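New to this. Please check this fold:
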Amino acid sequence: MSELGTIVKGRVISGRLCFNSLERARWTAAIANFSGDVEIIIRRPKKERSHDQNAYYWGVVIQLITEYTGDVPVKLHDLFKKTYLGGRSTTTLTTREFEDYLEQIKAWAAEHNIIIPDPERVDF
């Protein structure tokens, strides 16, 4: 049993907590793993990075830096994660955190004379 517990997603409808069948099973399994006092936290879900952000990151940002440096895309990705996220996975970032991450990489690129266009200026 993890000290961090389990995150289960649901929806509140007319004052009642509702789950889809997969989340209900996760809830039931999570409860079965505990005994005694527990703490339940209810909050709005984080908005995770979007598909468009991810497509822009790999298709424009990483691609342009790859063309300039000759490095392998995954190597650049790992370098930027280590440099700007302390190695944290980009999949855990909210949309705002991912925007900040992109801005840091774009600033690095500008220092190396690599021009990265804004997402609204390119198709990806």
